Structures are given as structure tokens and as C-alpha cells.
């Protein structure tokens, strides 16, 4: 049986990353982001996450999202800078709008979720959109709609898991990352937790060395202790009882 409280916590993490990687001028989403950070920092996954949460919270002023938007634009969109790509297709296939975008579209066809192009113009395999979908699916699972558990598992295993480490390395090492350097630390910890919870292995890709690996080395002892303590989660985590069939659609739709 699924742990609904765990799914709600996971939905909060995905919701936080959704709001960090799909920025808009909507102050409501910014205030929601601050509220989520304030909640999650009370129970961090490890000591470095605790520090990153405190740093992130201090760098998100309550009266303005201009600092966050400026850094976001500098890292991801400023044409004069070295910008970070944001799609699974680019990292996995070296092109935009590749097979991973089609896979995401087909996974979405199995859910009630659809991309609202007026609010979100990027592709379905954009990392921010993936986080948004995972937040929605985790929330649905927490509310008893277990039908979506397998789709969420497949999206994590076959799409997000395949490129998130390399993306996160690029984010952490970007010369203009300040707020997002702390985000990278939090994302690294959370992805490690998700792999444990969902029983998903590291992808078989070439090994990338980076400054961010020093973070992993510095918490390896703590991580070993934490993972031993959390092994019980495996029994509660979703089992992949059915294949990731991309072509079974749901009739209900909800735009995000």
C-alpha cells in the first residue's frame, strides 16, 4: 500500500522544482514557491540539503521575484551568455523535439493532464514541465488515484532519470548560478531519494566528473546511513507491475 504522506511530500518537492524551472511573472506562483521552501526546509533530506534550503530561503525575498527571474533568464535564455539546455531530447539525443518529446506526449495521453500552450510554450520534455507533471501525478496518487502511479514511475525512469544528472551538473557549475547552485544541491538529494523510493537505477551513460560530485563525496557517509534507515521505503514504494505502455489514453483531460 502506498504511503500517502510520502506522496504528498514528493508532490511538494516536484512542485518546488516546477516553480523554479517554469518561472513566470505570476506572483502567486512565487509566493507558493516561498511557502513550499519554508515547509520543506523544516525536514530536509540531509545536512547539505538543510544548508541549501536555508540559503535558498534567504535568497528569495518576499516582496519581489526579480532576483530569481534575472538569474533564471541569465542561465537559461540570455543570448549573450552560455545558456543551459532544458529538454530531455537535447541531453539524450542531442537534438530538440526528439523522441523523448514524443514519449512525454504519449505518457500524457494516459493521464488527465495536458499542456496549456498559453501558459507554457516550451516542449513537453522541458524539465520544468516534467516536474510539473510529476507534481500533479504525485498529488493524484496521494489522493488515492493509484491508476497514475505506473505512469509517474515510467516518466521518472525513462525520461527524467536519463538526463537529470547531467542537467544538474551543468546547472551547479554555471558561472552565474547563485540561487540555482542551492537548487542543484536540493535536486541532487531529491533525485537520489526518488531512485531509492521508486527502485530505479542510475542510467547507463558515460560518467561525468564535476564540482557537484564533491557534494556527493562530502555526504557519502551520511547518505549510507540515511539509505540504510530508509530501506523500509522500498516495501512501500510502487512496484512496476505493468510495462510502460505509451499508447493507452485516458479520456479525462486537465490542462496545466
What is the element layout, followed by pairings?
Layout: H1 4-21, H2 27-40, H3 47-58, H4 66-76, H5 88-93, H6 99-108, E1 113-114, H7 127-142, H8 149-173, H9 179-198, H10 212-218, H11 220-229, H12 233-236, E2 254-255
Parallel strand pairs: 1-2
Helix pairs in contact: 1-2, 1-7, 1-9, 3-9, 6-8, 7-8, 8-9
Detailed description of the structure:
- 60% of the residues lie in helices and 2% in strands.
- With 256 residues, it is mostly helical.
- The relative contact order is 0.16.
- It has a single domain, classed as TorD-like (Orthogonal Bundle), CATH 1.10.3480.
- It contains twelve helices and two strands; from the N terminus they run ααααααβααααααβ.
- It has a two-stranded parallel ribbon.
Entry keywords:
256 residues; mainly alpha
User: How many separate domains?
Assistant: 1
List how many beta strands DSSP finds: 2
Helix content: 55-70%
Q: Write down the Rg.
A: 17 Å
In short, what is this structure?
This protein has 256 residues and is mostly helical.
Amino acid at each position: 500500500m502506498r504511503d500517502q504522506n510520502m506522496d504528498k511530500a514528493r508532490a511538494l518537492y516536484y512542485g518546488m522544482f516546477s516553480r523554479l524551472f517554469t518561472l513566470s511573472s505570476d506572483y502567486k506562483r512565487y509566493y507558493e514557491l516561498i511557502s513550499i521552501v519554508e515547509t520543506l526546509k523544516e525536514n530536509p533530506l540531509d545536512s547539505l540539503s538543510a544548508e541549501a534550503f536555508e540559503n535558498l530561503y534567504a535568497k528569495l525575498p518576499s516582496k519581489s521575484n526579480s532576483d530569481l527571474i534575472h538569474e533564471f533568464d541569465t542561465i537559461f535564455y540570455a543570448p549573450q551568455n552560455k545558456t543551459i539546455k532544458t529538454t530531455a531530447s537535447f541531453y539524450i539525443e542531442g537534438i530538440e523535439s526528439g523522441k523523448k518529446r514524443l514519449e512525454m506526449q504519449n505518457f500524457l495521453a494516459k493521464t488527465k493532464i495536458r499542456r496549456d500552450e498559453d501558459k507554457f510554450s516550451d516542449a513537453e520534455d522541458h524539465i520544468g514541465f516534467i516536474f510539473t507533471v510529476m507534481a500533479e501525478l504525485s498529488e493524484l496518487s496521494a489522493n488515492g488515484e493509484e491508476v497514475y502511479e505506473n505512469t509517474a514511475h515510467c516518466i521518472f525512469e525513462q525520461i527524467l532519470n536519463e538526463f537529470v544528472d547531467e542537467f544538474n551538473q551543468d546547472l551547479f557549475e554555471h558561472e552565474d548560478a547563485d540561487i540555482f547552485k542551492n537548487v542543484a544541491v536540493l535536486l541532487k538529494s531529491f533525485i537520489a531519494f526518488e531512485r531509492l523510493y521508486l527502485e530505479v537505477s542510475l542510467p547507463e551513460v558515460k560518467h561525468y566528473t564535476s564540482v557537484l560530485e564533491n557534494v556527493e563525496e562530502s555526504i557519502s557517509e551520511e547518505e549510507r546511513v540515511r539509505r540504510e534507515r530508509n530501506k523500509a521505503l522500498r516495501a512501500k514504494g510502487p512496484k512496476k507491475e505493468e510495462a510502460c505502455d505509451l499508447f493507452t489514453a485516458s479520456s479525462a483531460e486537465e490542462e496545466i
